[in-house]
Amino acid sequence: MAKSNKTKWIPTDKRFVAFFDILGFKDMVMRSTHNEIYDKLNEISRIKKWLEKLTADDEIQEKVGNAEIYTVSFSDSIVLFSKNGDSENFRFFLVAVRWFLAKAIENDIPMKGGMAYGQISLNKSEQIYFGQPIIDAYLIEEDVYYFGVTAHNSINNYINQNHDSLDMKYINEILFDCLTPLKCGKVEHTNVNWFIKIGGVMEMTDKDEKKKIINETIKKFRMTASGSPRKYVDNTLHVLKNIIIV
After folding, report:
1. Given phi > 0 = left and psi -120 to 50 = alpha, else beta, which region is 185?
2. Which of 155, 180, 241, 244 gives 151 a disulfide partner, CB atoms 3.0 to 4.6 angstroms apart?
């Protein structure tokens, strides 16, 4: 058994944060039974717990070291925090963010999100969470207009300042830049490539088959949306066209 090298969470530290929103939650509540909504929220809770416990696994811990994730949720919002701002935590944070969104989409839960970096105070026992990065992540999430997670410029600044200490090959497999659909229009931003984590796609060898499965997974949301909400689906498919699926 590997020896644990986990340190305690410091209440105030530099951290990464991702703010997620369940799209159309109010409409979902009106059109679904109470038990159906409960089951969806329970599935999200299961994913969150799995992420938090993941680094307790010896094999995973050897790869991610001191990295950990902490999640908070209220109503239709979910927030992911990293333990601190080192390179190990950044890498695991990105893995957690893209896996969380992919699993939500797989379970028919449409989501969007924003992520940021900076000083955050997090007191688990007192349930105190505050800091400018939380606001930054929330505000960019509010502007996102597709099923995706878009980075605040604080993430880009972190990458630029720590470029030499980061595994950029791995980072570039998770992040990509594109003209991102925002409510204010299309703007060049960094985003998380969660598409490749859709059920079993990563293990496939046929690129066309991979893209077909991802497309079908996204298009199914057209059956539950009309008018402007369906724009999220179209925008997501458009972003997918600009990603090289390997």
Report:
1. left
2. 155
Helices 34-54 and 87-106 pack at an angle, to 10 degrees, of 150
Give the bridge partners for 98, in sequence order.
none
Query: How far is Cα 236 from Cα 219, in angstroms, rounded to an integer?
Result: 9
> What's the pTM value of the predicted model, to 2 decimals?
0.89
Q: Residue ranges of the alpha helices (H) in 55-167?
A: 58-64, 87-106, 132-143, 153-161
Counting Cα atoms < 13 Å in the Cβ hemisphere of 141 gives: 23
CATH class for the domain made up of 12-174: alpha beta
CA distance 112 to 131: 21
Query: In the chain, where are the structural domains located?
Result: 12-174
pLDDT digit string, tens, across residues 13-58: 999 999 999 987 666 655 667 777 777 778 888 888 877 777 666 6
